[in-house]
Each structure stands twice: as C-alpha cells, then as structure tokens.
Write a structure and sequence with these properties.
The protein is of the alpha/beta class and 437 residues long. The chain has 14 helices and 13 strands. The protein folds into two domains: 209 residues, NAD(P)-binding Rossmann-like Domain (Rossmann fold, 3-Layer(aba) Sandwich), CATH 3.40.50.720; 196 residues, NAD(P)-binding Rossmann-like Domain (Rossmann fold, 3-Layer(aba) Sandwich).
C-alpha cells in the first residue's frame, strides 16, 4: 500500500476529504447534496454562471431538489464556482458532464475531453478522479488515463482513476442517490479500492466490477435493455392499433403473470439523457470490433419513428372532423420527457411540436413542471405554459397528451376537449373525443 493510497482512503473514510463535482445538473447536484449531508466539504463546478449564482443565493433550479435542502450547506460546507483552478484544492473529483451524440449520431466526448484538458494543470498526487458520464467501454482507459499520465501522474500509484456510472431517476419517490446501488470499476485494483471508499460513504451499496470497461458497459446494458423493450412495445402498439385493440389493456393483463414478464409501456418516443443516446455509444464502439448491433439499432429506429406515428394519428383524427393540421390550434400536454419531472432533454414532445409547426399548426403547450419553454441547443419556441381551464381547453382543435403528469386534471380535460390524442394510455375508458396513439 502506498502512502498516497493510505492517506487518501483515510481521508475519504473519516470524511475530512474535500470533494469536487464538475457539472451541477440532474446528476451532479443530487450527488453534491448527498456528500454535504454526510459531512464532506464540497466544491461544485459549473460553466454556467447563472447556475452558480442561483446556488450561491440558496436557490435551486431543479424541481425535485428544493432550495431548503441546499440552503443549509451553501457557502458553509458547499461552495459553487466556475473557477476550475480550485480543482487543486480537492481530494476527490467527480465528473458529471454531458455525453451527447453528434449530428451524425456518433459519440460526442467534447465535454468530457474539454473538462479533463481544463483540469489537467490542477490534478495532483493523492487524489481520485471519477467519471460518471455515460460513455462507451474504453473511454476511461483510452481517453482519460493517457492524458493524466502525460502530466507525470501514474494512475494507480500517484492518482486513482475510476468509472462509476450515474443512476439518477428524477421524480422517482422510491429511490434516491443514497438507496440506488452504485457500480464502480477502476483502472487498477488500487483505483477500485479508492473508488469504493469514495462512494461507500454516501450510498448504501457499492457494486464493484473488475474494470472501468465493465462499469462503462454495465451502464450501457441497463439503458439498452430499456430501449429495446420500449421499442418492442412501441411496435406492438402500432400492430394493436391496426387490429383495434388497446395495447395498454393488454399490458395490464399480461402484467398479472407473476413470472417471465416485465411490463414496459409505449409512448410518443423516448427522451431524457440516457435512452435515446446511450445505445448509439455501443453501436459506434462495436464497429471497431467488427460487430453490427442490429437488434439495438432496430429498437432505436422504431423509437425514433414514434413521433411521426403520433403526427399521423393527429392528422387522421383532425381529418375525420373535417379539419387539417394546417391552421389547427394544437395544445401539447406535457413537455418533459417523462411524468412528474421538469426535465425536457431529448423529449419527444418537442419533436412533435416542431413537426406540427412545420405542417402549419398553431402550437401551444402546457406543463405544470416547466412554466417557460427552456433554452435548448437544437430546438426553439418562444412559449409559456398554458393554464388549463374550461375556456382554454375548449379553444383548441386538438390536445395531444405527450407526458401524463399526475398534476393534470384529466376529468377537466376530457370534459372540455374537442379532441384528445392520447399517447400514454392515460384515458382508459373510450369516448368520442379520445383517440389512442
């Protein structure tokens, strides 16, 4: 055991270590809060000055993390900053930065590489660096390790490098950062031991795996599993619709089987920071090994096509009422990518809105969790959420239920909407103004 290793593990276990977290979004902020709760000093880094300013004033910009949870720690145990030179002060550095796809649907590691290159001058002996951003197997070993060792720091001896994928599920009341098991893989056995010491202080269970590559693939498998199963039920929805069968009824019936079946539910597409993106990280990397991941890519194609299926159902339903999409007033219910959250990343609702706008519809949206249409890299609407009343609902030619938030008053909607296109199976009973999509 090296002195650096022993000193670092001791500091992590007695919670005298300073923890740095880069990226204070849906992954980084809950993790930061957890480290504060158990007594660590934490420095939070983000390139977005508005986030840093909000946190410095004790405000939260994420709905499920109330300000009153953050306020006791701000500028006491926790200091937010945009100054990456302060990485020199930390004993543990955790990277929670985006890993999107390029316009050619290939991995875009620019945020990860850019962050590593920016902090390299401030890395030092006796610290641990953990990457949590979802990526393809080999990223930690092939991209991060060589850059660090080029600085003269030997991974596994001077500095400890691990991959531990995030598993946040915003809006899920049954699981928290503490209760979700944490997978951890290191570049060396010593790295893994340090990684376990880093995370076992804040989560109930750490799940060690043999390497960083195994941890990277674990995260991809979890999300590909969901993508493939969602793709299956989305395809089944189209088949069932043609047959005049309600697939949601079928899923509810199948779910009564106590073994061998896990219910997944169809929708207008897939969204969030994981399911639409992560499978393509593996398909890209698999090509390096001469493997064509047909199953994964087929699921991706089906899921990506679902917004167009919804558009076709909207057009068909309006046409049955002697109306066209062009000129119709259409209200999209739910902007978030899933129910009861304020996260609209990769949301199929936004794709549907853009497509309807292109077809000449007058588009509005309502979402109790997102009062103003957020700034997005690839999408732009100057809209605010419509308040649902008898009068406002009746003004629209069509309502599209894209995200079935519990806060919606479904009885009010059903009673006053001229036409509802239900993409989530929320309206179980048939009615003349409801069309399943």
């Amino acid at each position: 055991m090296t002195d650096r290793y022993s000193r670092l593990v001791t500091k992590l276990k007695d919670r005298t270590a300073t923890v740095g977290i880069i990226g204070l979004g849906y992954v980084g902020l809950p993790l930061l809060l957890r480290y504060c709760e158990v007594g660590y000093r934490v420095i939070g880094f983000d390139v977005d000055q508005s986030k840093v300013d909000a946190l410095r004033s004790g405000k939260s910009y994420i709905e499920h993390i109330p300000a009153e949870k953050l306020a006791p720690f701000v500028m006491n145990q926790f200091e937010p900053t945009t100054d990456l030179s302060r990485v020199a002060e930390v004993d543990a550095l955790i990277l929670c930065v985006p890993t999107p796809l390029s316009k050619h649907r290939e991995p875009d590691l620019s945020f990860v590489i850019g962050t590593i290159d920016s902090v390299l001058p401030y890395l030092h002996d006796g610290m641990v660096l953990s990457l949590e951003s979802t990526t393809y197997p080999g990223t930690t070993d092939e991209e991060l390790k060589p850059r660090i060792e080029a600085r003269g720091l030997k991974v596994g001896t001077d500095i400890f490098l691990i991959f531990s994928p995030e598993r946040e599920d915003p809006g899920n009341p049954n699981f928290s950062t503490r209760t979700i098991p944490k997978v951890c893989g290191g570049c060396t056995p010593q790295c893994l031991k340090v990684g376990i010491a880093l995370y076992e202080q804040v989560v109930d269970k750490v799940v060690p795996v043999s390497s960083a590559r195994a941890a990277e693939l674990t995260k991809l498998l979890e999300n590909i599993h969901r993508s493939v199963n969602i793709g299956l039920v989305n395809e089944m929805k189209i088949v069932a619709d043609r047959m005049g069968i309600d697939l949601h009824e079928v899923i509810r019936a199948a779910a009564t089987k106590p073994f061998g079946f896990v219910p997944y539910y169809p929708g207008p597409g897939i969204g969030g920071h994981c399911i639409p993106i992560d499978p393509f990280y593996l398909t890209w990397k698999a090509r390096e090994y001469g493997v064509h991941t047909r199953f994964i890519e087929l699921a991706g194609e089906i899921n990506s096509s679902m917004p167009e299926y919804v558009i076709s159902k909207i057009a068909e339903s309006l046409n049955a009422r002697k109306k066209s999409v062009n000129g119709s007033r259409i209200l999209v219910l739910g902007l978030a990518y899933k129910k009861n959250v304020d996260d609209s990343r990769e949301s199929p609702a936004v794709v549907i809105m853009e497509r309807l706008r292109d077809l000449g519809a007058s588009i509005s949206y309502t979402d109790p969790h997102i009062p103003v249409f957020p700034v997005m890299r690839a999408h732009s609407f100057s809209l605010s959420s419509v308040t649902l009343t008898k009068q406002s609902i009746a003004e629209f030619d069509c309502l599209v239920l894209a995200t079935d938030h519990d806060k919606f008053d479904y009885e009010l909607i059903k009673a006053h909407a001229e036409l509802i296109v239900d993409c989530r199976g929320r309206f179980a009973e048939s009615a003349s103004n409801i069309v399943k999509a």
